[in-house]
Amino acid sequence: EVQLLESGGGLVQPGGSLRLSCAASGFTFSSYAMTWARQAPGKGLEWVSCISGSDETTYYAASVKGRFTISRDNSKNTLSLQLNSLRADDTAIYYCARSRNSNCYTSNDYWGQGTLVTVSS
Amino acid sequence: DIVMTQSPDSLAVSLGERATINCKSSQSVLYSSNNKNHLAWYQQKPGQPLKLLFYWASTRESGVPNRFSGSGSGTDFTLTISSLQAEDVAVYYCQQHYSVPYTFGQGTKVEIK
Fold it and tell me: How many CB atoms lie within 10 A of CB A2?
């Protein structure tokens, strides 16, 4: 059974940093691209970043490029998102999701429950 | 960026009746090299992970009831629930995965009338 479990969320001050993790199980992690998306309270979904499963090519939304860094550790079946220079509008539930294959340009067939990041002083 | 616009924002349908959600992209998401529409539909229920319903616009994900159907090509897409059930109450999103950033529609909330 595919499982994705996010962790690392919490309350952080503006300008601060946080590292999110997503523990994956039930599939060959290295064979799949992985995505982060987010959802501000009461709002819709926003795609944030993706890392391919083959050559680990990364992609970012303009709103986070230069501040967030996606990475993966295939030996630990873990996806990470380093969040720096956080702003109030980064407040959201952050979800990790598996792509349907090793490329990012495909849909996401499994999603985690999410971890809440709150940026506030 | 490709803008995805869903309509309506919400709809209330009687049990057993048809529900139709539209999704329009600001540019075509039909990829010429594979002749596939890079368009997915998702269902979001409170407290549950997001669920993939359709990929390539009309390919039903395993386990999705056949009362759900996806159609369309290019810039105009439709998600149809042929006979609404109580468990279909949710917010539905379309998403393009044609070009980065892979944008979502704003969501359509489906309720029981």
Answer: 12
